[in-house]
């Protein structure tokens, strides 16, 4: 991944951070096909979208086609689902589509993740408590009989989200929460490493992205929800959550908020490709 300004590629175990703590997972990040249109004078965050890195056909025959088709298929599902969310929130079926570029002009992301067993007495942070950055995430839990994924309920309790065969877990991202002024609450979630001796866990999330140039906290004011939807939101109150990421959606373009998140998670990549932003985030250097 360190070779990619788009944060796409392979990450070894123990080099990614959530809330300042190391995650214990190995992963391959890839995205729907898109050439980078970023130029020197453009804002940095437009550089987040660009081509994936692939092993050669000789090394892994057919891998690229399978991976790209999986994301493109899941993206169709996510796109339809977005229309249903828009309708369910009383906005009409088309409204939320205003926050997407036309197909082929934006990029959605995926990850193939391997969580090794925890070592006795070691860290069990597969990935720490966080929100996903975008709109909706669709997650395939590959491994059977392997707990790990947990979501936080409104009271702040961590609840297991075990694998149910032939289903995907759908998480709400922080972008959708900002855009809906908290009507849709982002899912605070984490993964605990498999217990020693219980085997490796695999999962494959798809992350639906949003337009990069829009400040979601401002765009939110243009969405008119029916009063009964707002009343439900207000009656529900503010949930308790351990996750803290992406407060920047309130005042920065969505792409910038996403880029800050990537810099915090993958510091080696951030320091190499976005040195000025990296220094803003970590003025005294990245803490160990
Ligand atoms: O592995 C999982 O089940 C969840 C992964 C996740 O939350 C993420 O990568 O954002
Ligand atoms: Fe996540």
From TrEMBL:
Transmembrane is among the record's keywords: no
Gene3D superfamilies documented for this protein: B-lactam Antibiotic, Isopenicillin N Synthase, Chain
Keyword line: Iron, Metal-binding, Oxidoreductase
Domain annotation Fe2OG dioxygenase: ranges: 102-210
Any single Pfam family the record assigns to this protein: DIOX_N
GO molecular function: metal ion binding; oxidoreductase activity
Stated family: Belongs to the iron/ascorbate-dependent oxidoreductase family.
Record protein name field: Clavaminate synthase-like protein
């Amino acid at each position: 991944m360190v070779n990619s300004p788009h944060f796409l590629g392979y990450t070894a175990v123990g080099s990614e951070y959530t809330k300042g703590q190391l995650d214990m997972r190995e992963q391959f990040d890839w995205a729907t096909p898109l050439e980078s249109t970023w130029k020197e004078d453009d804002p940095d965050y437009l550089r987040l979208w660009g081509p994936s890195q692939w092993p050669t056909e000789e090394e892994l025959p057919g891998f690229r086609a399978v991976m790209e088709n999986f994301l493109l298929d899941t993206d169709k599902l996510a796109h339809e689902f977005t229309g249903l969310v828009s309708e369910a929130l009383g906005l009409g079926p088309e409204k939320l589509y205003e926050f997407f570029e036309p197909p082929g002009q934006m990029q959605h992301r995926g990850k193939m993740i391997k969580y090794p067993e925890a070592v006795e007495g070691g860290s069990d942070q597969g990935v720490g408590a966080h929100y996903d950055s975008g709109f909706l995430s669709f997650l395939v839990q590959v491994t059977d009989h392997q707990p790990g994924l947990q979501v936080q309920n409104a009271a702040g309790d961590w609840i297991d989200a075990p694998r149910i065969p032939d289903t995907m877990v759908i998480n709400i991202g922080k972008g959708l929460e900002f855009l809906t002024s908290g009507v849709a609450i982002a899912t605070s979630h984490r993964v605990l490493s498999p217990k020693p001796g219980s085997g490796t866990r695999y999962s494959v999330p798809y992350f639906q992205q949003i337009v990069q140039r829009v400040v979601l906290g401002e765009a939110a004011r243009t969405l008119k929800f029916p009063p009964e939807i707002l009343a439900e939101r207000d009656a529900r109150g503010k949930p308790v959550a351990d996750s803290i990421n992406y407060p920047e959606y309130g005042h920065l373009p969505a792409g910038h908020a996403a880029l800050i998140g990537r810099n915090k998670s993958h510091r080696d990549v951030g320091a190499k490709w976005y040195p000025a932003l990296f220094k803003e985030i970590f003025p005294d250097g990245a803490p160990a």
